[in-house]
């Protein structure tokens, strides 16, 4: 760590991991509700637990992105953060606002929360992933603006690198597209169409820029490969992400009342969407193979390679599986979608943040890398969480295929609930995999506290 | 990557491709929004339906159900529930009203929301309106949703 202000990232990362634990606890709860329908009913009904699960994910990923930016940008810009105090202030504001929102979900009925927060003045609540009260959404915008100002000023007054500029573009996009969450027309087709301007243009658009920049940064650090090479890869990956992903939004417009041409455009362009993710895989392995140094932080290298592979599988392969309109006609809104969602979010965004944390956390604690035992434990947690997620995805895919057949494809279709009863075995198996994931997560946290002999960095590897 | 393919070329593809396809998306969006009145059932978008949508939102219905395939996958699709329930808003209202307060032992159950008769009517009208949206290929594949 070269600049003092980089250590602000530590706050953000600790909060991110804490919220991550909450997210998974609620995930395991939801999995149980799938098989024991009245579990925690009516105290914590499914919709509340799900909202907590998905909103905690979004909030902790945002903490992770912001923390990563606060770590990465000063070093790339070769100067201290423009306003460290602002970053600390925004941390507490965001944490308190986030915690109050989650408590609101859990303590009072959602309709009461809408009333307390005066949703009527500007109704934005009650849409998937955008359930936050309007006041929280405004808070998110304020935090995002302060964050962008801080990061932007640091970049503009310092050294400008491709990585920091791409990261900044992605973060600006994140803030700009979030503004669509305030647009909530009565017309359901319009509502759905523009809802995707937040959701799709985030996860299949600007977030890919953020992810690619973070991955490129860590790869430069752990491999010592020439910046020119890495920047060229970065440009071409994000070029493909935007070329495929922007019109690829169309794969969400198949069945919401939008014109028929989206069936073609959405299918063709989203069929290209796996390419940037595949290039990320090639990129990571290629660069690691050409490494000029063996960085003592083996765990970080594992996370970096892991995210490249899992993002391709989850976002690329599982996305393509059901993205063509004739296939999606049958699979839309089934457990296939859930399967894809889980592995894509884990593989792309969870893992890239854990990569960044894995690389930077030891440095912020005054070491080049975690001690040998801590790294072994961290790598065990990598495998437990990653393999568990693969099985969650496979079981949900099994459930989804059977669901599609029984409810939509067969000549004698069953009703929704009758079909769900027949999927029980898959749901139990998924719950088992979920518990393994939780164990992996606890092991991950333990790795930060594991004692052992320090790993020494070879002198030659310390440079740049 | 080969030396003949320079970083400058990669950068130009990124800026050029990004801006071009963003403009294409805006163009297609304008075209889509202009064409929507043909399919979006906006002629039946009454005050009552709008109030129903608000109730749909503030009770977080999307947290369990899908609507035109989007939402959670815990409870049935409701974009075509009007059709599935024999085109009867009374059947929809009856179902919502009859949910037991403490759930059903061992089973999934919808919460009891204690809606007033007016609210029930608004929700039913909202679901009827959504059912009237002209979706490509009449998705979902059958009435089971």
From TrEMBL, chain A:
Residue intervals of the Cytochrome oxidase subunit I profile domain: 1-464
The UniProt entry lists the main location of this chain as: membrane
Q: Which residues cross the membrane?
A: 12-36, 56-73, 85-108, 135-156, 163-183, 195-220, 232-255, 261-288, 300-321, 341-361, 382-405, 425-449
Q: Name one Pfam family in it.
A: COX1
Q: What biological processes does GO assign it?
A: aerobic respiration; electron transport coupled proton transport; respiratory electron transport chain
Listed GO MF terms: cytochrome-c oxidase activity; heme binding; metal ion binding; nitric oxide reductase activity
Reaction equations catalysed: nitrous oxide + 2 Fe(III)-[cytochrome c] + H2O = 2 nitric oxide + 2 Fe(II)-[cytochrome c] + 2 H(+)
Location in or out of the cell:
Cell membrane
**What are the record's GO terms for cellular component?**
plasma membrane
InterPro entries the record matches: Cyt_c_oxase-like_su1_dom (IPR023616), Cyt_c_oxase-like_su1_sf (IPR036927), Cyt_C_Oxase_1 (IPR000883), Cyt_c_Oxase_su1_BS (IPR023615)
Q: Pathway membership of this protein?
A: Nitrogen metabolism; nitrate reduction (denitrification); dinitrogen from nitrate: step 3/4
List UniProt keywords, sorted A-Z. Answer: Cell membrane, Electron transport, Heme, Iron, Membrane, Metal-binding, Oxidoreductase, Respiratory chain, Transmembrane, Transmembrane helix, Transport
Enzyme Commission (EC) number: 1.7.2.5
Protein topology in the membrane: Multi-pass membrane protein
Q: Does the keyword Oxidoreductase apply?
A: yes
- Top EC class of this enzyme: oxidoreductase
Query: What does the UniProt function comment say about this protein?
Result: Component of the anaerobic respiratory chain that transforms nitrate to dinitrogen (denitrification). NorB is the catalytic subunit of the enzyme complex. Shows proton pump activity across the membrane in denitrifying bacterial cells. The mononitrogen reduction is probably coupled to electron transport phosphorylation.
Protein family per UniProt: Belongs to the heme-copper respiratory oxidase family.
Assembly with partners or alone: Heterodimer of cytochromes b (large subunit) and c (small subunit).
Q: List the protein's name.
A: Nitric oxide reductase subunit B
> What high-level taxonomic lineage is stated for the organism?
Bacteria, Pseudomonadati, Pseudomonadota, Gammaproteobacteria, Thiotrichales
From TrEMBL, chain B:
Per UniProt, which keywords does this protein have?
A: Heme, Iron, Membrane, Metal-binding, Transmembrane, Transmembrane helix
- Domain Cytochrome c as annotated: residue spans: 47-131
GO MF, one annotated term: electron transfer activity
- Name the residues that span the membrane: 12-30
Coiled coil stretches, renumbered: none
Protein name stated in the entry? Nitric oxide reductase NorC subunit apoprotein
């Amino acid at each position: 760590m070269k600049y003092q202000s980089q250590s602000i990232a530590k706050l953000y990362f600790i909060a991110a991991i804490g919220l991550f634990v909450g997210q998974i606890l609620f995930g395991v709860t939801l999995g149980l509700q799938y098989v024991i329908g009245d579990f925690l009913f009516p105290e914590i009904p499914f919709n509340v637990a799900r909202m907590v699960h998905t909103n905690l994910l979004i909030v902790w990923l945002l903490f992770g992105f912001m923390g990563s930016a606060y770590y990465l940008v000063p070093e790339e810009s070769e100067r201290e953060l423009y306003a460290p105090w602002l970053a600390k202030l925004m941390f507490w504001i965001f944490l308190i606002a986030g915690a109050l929102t989650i408590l609101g979900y859990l303590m009072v009925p959602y309709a009461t929360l809408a009333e307390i927060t005066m949703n009527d003045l500007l109704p934005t609540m009650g849409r998937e992933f955008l359930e936050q009260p309007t006041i929280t959404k405004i808070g998110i915008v304020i935090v995002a603006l302060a964050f962008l100002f801080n990061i932007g000023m640091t970049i503009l007054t310092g050294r400008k690198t491709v990585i920091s500029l791409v990261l900044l573009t992605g973060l600006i996009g994140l803030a700009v597209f979030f503004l669509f969450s305030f647009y909530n027309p009565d017309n359901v087709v319009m509502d759905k169409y523009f809802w995707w301007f937040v959701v799709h243009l985030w996860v299949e658009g600007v977030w890919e820029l953020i992810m690619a920049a973070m991955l490129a940064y860590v790869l430069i650090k752990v491999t010592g490969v020439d910046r020119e090479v890495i920047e060229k890869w970065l440009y071409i990956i994000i070029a493909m992400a935007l070329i495929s992903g922007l019109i690829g939004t169309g794969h969400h417009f198949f069945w919401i009342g939008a014109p028929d041409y989206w069936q073609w455009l959405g299918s063709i362009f989203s069929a290209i969407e796996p390419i940037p993710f595949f290039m990320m895989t090639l990129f990571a392995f290629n660069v690691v193979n050409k490494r000029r140094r063996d960085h003592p932080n083996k765990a970080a290298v594992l996370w970096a390679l892991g995210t490249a592979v899992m993002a391709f599988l989850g976002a690329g392969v599982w996305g393509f599986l059901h993205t063509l309109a004739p296939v999606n006609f049958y699979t839309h809104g089934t457990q296939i979608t859930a399967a894809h969602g889980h592995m894509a979010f884990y593989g792309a965004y969870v893992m890239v943040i854990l990569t960044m944390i894995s690389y930077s956390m030891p440095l912020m604690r005054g070491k080049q890398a975690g001690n040998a035992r801590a790294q072994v434990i961290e790598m065990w947690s990598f495998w437990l969480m990653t393999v568990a997620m693969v099985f969650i995805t496979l079981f949900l895919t099994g459930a989804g295929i059977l669901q599609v057949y029984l409810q939509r494809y067969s000549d004698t279709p069953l009703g929704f609930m009758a079909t769900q009863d027949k999927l029980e075995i898959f749901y139990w198996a998924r719950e088992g995999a979920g518990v393994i994931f939780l164990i992996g997560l606890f092991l991950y946290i333990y790795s930060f506290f594991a004692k052992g002999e320090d790993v020494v960095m070879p002198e030659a590897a310390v440079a740049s | 990557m080969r030396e003949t393919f320079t970083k400058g070329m990669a950068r130009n593809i990124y800026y050029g491709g990004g801006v071009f396809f963003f403009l294409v998306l805006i163009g297609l969006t304008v075209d889509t929004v202009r064409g929507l009145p043909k399919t979006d059932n906006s002629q039946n978008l009454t005050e009552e339906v709008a109030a129903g949508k608000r109730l749909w939102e503030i009770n977080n219905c999307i947290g369990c159900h899908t609507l035109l395939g989007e939402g959670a996958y815990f409870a049935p699709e409701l974009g075509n529930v009007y059709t599935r329930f024999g085109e009867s808003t009374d059947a929809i209202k009856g179902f919502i009203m009859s949910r037991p307060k403490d759930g059903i032992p061992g089973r999934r159950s919808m919460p009891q929301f204690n809606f007033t008769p007016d609210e029930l009517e608004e929700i039913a009208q909202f679901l009827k309106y959504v059912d009237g949206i002209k979706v490509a290929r009449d998705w979902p594949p059958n009435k089971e949703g």
